Amino acid sequence: MGCFAARALSSYKLKVLVLESREDVCCEVSKANTGIIYDSYNTSPGSLKTELTNKANENFPELCRELDVPYLKCGSIMIAMGPKGDSVIKKKYENGLKNGVKGLKIISGEEVNALEPNLSKNVTSGLYSENTYSVNPWDLAVAAYENAKANGVTFLFNSKVTNITRNDGFKVVSDEKVYQARAVINCAGLAAADVHNMCNPARVELKYDAADYYVLDTTSKGLVSRIILHEPEVKQKGINIVPTVDGNILVGPTRRHVESDFYDTENAGFEHLDSECDKVLDGLDKTEIIRNFGAVRPNPYYINSDDKINDFLILENDGFISLLGVKTPGLTCASELGKYVAEKITEFLENVEINPDFNLVRKGIIKPSEMEPESRDKLVKEHPEYGRVICRCRQVTEGEVIEAVRRGATTVDGVKRRTGAGMGRCQGAYCMQRVMEIISEQTGCSISDVNKSCAGTDIVYEKL
Ligand SMILES: Cc1cc2nc3c(=O)[nH]c(=O)nc-3n(C[C@H](O)[C@H](O)[C@H](O)COP(=O)(O)OP(=O)(O)OC[C@H]3O[C@@H](n4cnc5c(N)ncnc54)[C@H](O)[C@@H]3O)c2cc1C
User: N or C: which end of the chain has fewer CB within 10 A?
Assistant: First the structure.
């Protein structure tokens, strides 16, 4: 949200500063989600969620062209395996029609199986949606960050906001410095309620639940060709099975209540994934699992109320705008939400001029593995570092890793999110050392200062 809000603000003549508490962009909620670009069959008619989801879904291919972000237009099927699921599917279909969703149809269990032969033969019906996409959330966030930065936004990392007071605008305290701002957009994700309450009446609290996922190797490509969303017969979270842009299959998420925003994977979550896979796929080949990860959802509630707030909650108070507990489809709507809050800010500031130099185009890092042999040979002749493969699983070259560091990666995970190095079956066992060396060479830090992610995730200890 912060990257897209900054990108939208950079289309105006404004001085924009992003204060980010982590070492990089996309290290919290946006780093761990299902990567689905939804249409609006699941959202309430007339809501802001529906309005923005419709716009976002329609504009998504164009957004990806602007930002050079790959995506799969794979479509999705919500599947039912009994009468309760069948009736939910009918309701969602009708809801989708009300919301103006195109490319939606109900299909029979046999039709589902014909399209997706690896699914259980117990599927009774499916809601097929043509305009659902799969995207890597890291690609989107990094692209928005780079584009905002290229258009003049300043990003400061390791800069946690610790206090905000109203005084001739706002005094924002971070890392023992005070920044004076005419307006503030609070996109602090899991901490958004705390940041909001720094200088506004406390109206909302966030309660958290956690999620677990499996990532299957690229050898499982084709297990499903469309995004599968299971609507279970009993009251529990059904799983999604998602073909990713990188050729993996993602399975998840679960939903587990947690008391705080700290989260990790849990055996109970994996047991749930296993039992769901047994139902939906007639079992999962566990040798295909190369990684699991955890995620956390911030659920917004009005204070002293047990009613969950389901729409996007955006609170405005005299130059201060908070996005509170933005959950699914927050990734889908990130760009539209960014534009929405940027417009509110410019209305508040009044007479803001358009930035005539704004360029909405950003180019991604060159990937030799995806080039035609002739162009690749030419590139390698001019830049030999693009001929030296660092990550064998994903065929990532030294040139790509160097470029990722030049664009802002300072950690092994930062390089992984920008290049894919370390995402294959060996999970970095082969390439991590060379990636660390390149970060050290390019940034001038010592190898023992290269972390996996945030402070405290050391990989090498100097004194061992
Ligand atoms: C399990 C799960 C699955 C999902 N699946 C999908 C999906 O398939 N499709 C979809 O459309 N949406 C999905 N979503 C929703 C989507 O991921 C979120 O809506 C979106 O990522 C939220 O982004 P954000 O910027 O609000 O939060 P974040 O990405 O967490 O960003 C908040 C940032 O604020 C920083 N911050 C926090 N406190 C401070 C502070 N005090 N000072 C400075 N910086 C601070 C954090 O470090 C962080 O970088 C899913 C969400 C979850 C949890």
Answer: C
Q: Which residues line ligand 1 (CB under 6 A)?
A: 1-2, 19-22, 27-30, 33-36, 38, 160-161, 187-191, 195, 211, 253, 295-297, 323, 326-332
Give distance in angstroms: CA of 307 to centre of ligand 1: 21
R_g of the chain, CA atoms, integer Å:
23
- Residue 252 CA: which ligand 1 atom is closest? 1
3-state DSSP assignment of residue 206: strand
pLDDT for 343-367, tens place per residue? 999 999 999 999 999 999 999 999 9
CA distance 461 to 464: 6
Task: Please list the helix, strand and coil fractions of the chain in percent, rounded to the nearest 5, in that order.
Answer: 35, 25, 40
345 CB contacts (<8 Å, ≥6 apart)?
9, 183, 185, 319, 321
Q: Is the full-model pTM beyond 0.90?
A: yes
d(CA 110, CA 82): 14
Domains in the chain, please, with CATH?
A: 369-449 (1.10.10.1100)
Half-sphere exposure (CA, 13 Å, Cβ side) for 437? 7
- Closest listed residue to residue 180, CA positions, set 353, 402, 15, 354: 15
Pure H helices in 14-104: 48-67, 83-98
- C-alpha torsion sign, points 360, 363, 364, 370: positive
Q: In angstroms, how far apart are the furthest CA atoms of the chain?
A: 65
Residue-level pLDDT at 463: 59
Taking phi first (over 0 means left), then psi (-120 to 50 degrees means alpha), and beta for anything else, what does residue 68 get? left
* CA dist 84 → 79, 88, 109, 123 (Å): 11, 6, 14, 12
143 C-alpha to center of ligand 1: Å?
A: 16
Query: What gap in Å lies between CA 152 and CA 54, rounded to an integer?
Result: 29
140-191 pLDDT tens trace: 999 999 999 999 999 999 999 999 999 999 999 998 999 999 999 999 999 9
